[in-house]
Amino acid sequence: MKITRISVYQQDLPLEHPYWLSGGRLKFECLDASFVKIETDAGFVGWGEGTPWGHTYVPAHGPGIRAGIETMAPFILGLDPRLVLEVERAMDLALPGHLYAKSPIDMACWDIAGQAAGLPIADLMGGGSRTPRPIASSVGAKTIEDTRAVMDRYRQRGYIAHSVKIGGDVARDIARIRDVEDQRRVGEIILYDVNRGWTRQQALRVLSATEDLNIMVEQPCESLKDIAAISGKHATPVSVDECLVTLQDAVAVAENGWAEIFGIKLNRVGGLTKAARMRDVALAHGIDMFVMATGGSVLADAEALHLAATIPDDHCHAVWACQDMLTVDIADGRGPRNKDGHLHLPEAPGLGVHPDEEALGDPLAVYS
Ligand code: MG
Questions:
Q1: Which residues are known to be catalytic?
Q2: How far is the CA of 45 from the centre of ligand 1 (A)?
Q3: What angle do CA 348, 351, 356 make, to 5 degrees?
Q4: What is the Cα–Cα distance from 43 to 236, expressed in whole angstroms?
Q5: Domains of the chain
Q6: Angle of the 84-94 helix axis to the 62-76 helix axis, nearest 10
Q7: Using an 8 Å Cβ cutoff, are 32 and 52 in contact?
Q8: Residue 211 CB contacts under 8 Å (≥ 6 apart), including other chains
Q9: Is 21's pLDDT higher than 80?
């Protein structure tokens, strides 16, 4: 089987509500999604998606994905998409780094490999758990009142997992954490996501003031060095998210015990092939995981769900999915959708969902 054509589409995905990170420092209203269709000489068609969370969140943006694919396409055409390691090496040779541009290609190849094998991607990767994964909400609020309102909105949709965005102001963060904990319902999974918004000393002040609450926080500071520097000075479990980009990052965090949780975002780390290695490093070191679509449509959510399903149930806290935050649906209700706050693994071969091609319009670029 050979890749014969790669088509690239662009789609704006507006957020239903404006969204802030890091105490209001970063605002987001619309995501720039790239969809990739890979066709083969055997008739199989695979789809991938790359949707960074805007262009200010991490070093990734929509135009960069499309430019990266233009550079890599000549190296990928003619390869067998089922041989995902060969495709990965071809992309890494053609364009060092730029992992976020590679993930949609990787995803489309896994989609084809799954279809060709007659298996959902998670089963092709070795076996997918059918235990539904809780979807983590994303609570990008700034005040106590807004936080309560947004969390209640998600609870009404069945959500039991929440990623509450904090950071930027020590007193306000402590007050918001205490209020969320006061309102916490039995069985809820709550992650306080700082999105790099604390300095080292701000982190230690908030973590010491909330030590009695047994919370977990994500990405408290800007860099791995910062997270390492505070790691022995507090007792709160820490998830690394934005700083977990390469396999070398994962190994360093795991070996040195800088964090207890990995937040694996598939677009940032370069797709399923590279993320699966991080999963194994985590499991080998007793590190639990959140698996996350970086953003985007139900395709990105499905990709995250497939990886999450390959993690033993006890070690996968939740998946973060973006589908309930968007006003545009490019798959018209198909694919894994929120059911009582959970995603269920699709049984269809491959990714389990394809977009509505008509909704995407004409491709911006076609390589053949
Ligand atoms: Mg995060």
A1: 165, 265
A2: 32
A3: 95
A4: 51
A5: 3-118+358-367 (3.30.390.10), 123-343 (3.20.20.120)
A6: 110
A7: yes
A8: 234, 235, 236
A9: no
Answer yes or no: are the C-beta atoms of 36 and 75 closer than 8 Å: no
Ligand 1 center to 27 CA (angstroms):
15
If you search the block for the tokens 């060709």, which residue do you land on? 116
Instruction: Give the pLDDT confidence score for residue 23 in this predicted structure.
Output: 64
Nearest of 347, 248, 335, 243 to residue 298 by alpha carbon: 335
| 17 pLDDT tier (thresholds 50, 70, 90) | confident
Q: Averaged over 112-141, what is the pLDDT?
A: 96
Alpha carbon separation from 61 to 14, 54, 272 (Å, rounded):
15, 6, 19
Residue bearing tokens 């789809």: 47
Residue type, 151: M
pLDDT band at 284 (very low <50, low <70, confident <90, very high): very high
Question: For residue range 332-360, what is the model confidence (pLDDT) as tens digits?
Answer: 999 999 999 999 999 999 999 999 999 99
User: Residue 58 has what pLDDT?
Assistant: 86
In the block, tokens 């190994």 appear at 251
Ligand 1 centroid, distance to 58 Cα (angstroms) = 11
Amino acid letter at 298?
V
Expressed in angstroms and rounded, the spacing between residue 114 Cα and the centre of ligand 1 is 29
What is the predicted pLDDT for the residue at 55?
A: 87
Q: Is the dihedral of CA 154, 156, 161, 164 positive or negative?
A: positive
Q: How far is the centre of ligand 1, averaged over its atoms, from the C-alpha of 327 (Å)?
A: 22
What DSSP assignment string belongs to 288-332? EEEEE--S-SHHHHHHHHHHHHTS-GGGEEEEE--GGGBS--TTT
Residue 212 has pLDDT above 90, yes or no: yes
**% of the chain exceeding 70 in pLDDT:** 99
pLDDT greater than 70 at residue 22: no
Question: Is the whole model's pTM more than 0.85, yes or no?
Answer: yes
- For Cα atoms 309, 320, 123, give the angle at the middle one, nearest 5 degrees: 15
Cα-to-centroid distance, 226 and ligand 1 (Å): 16
Distance 241 CA to ligand 1 centre (A): 5
What is the distance between the alpha carbons of residues 368 and 69, in angstroms, rounded to a whole number? 12
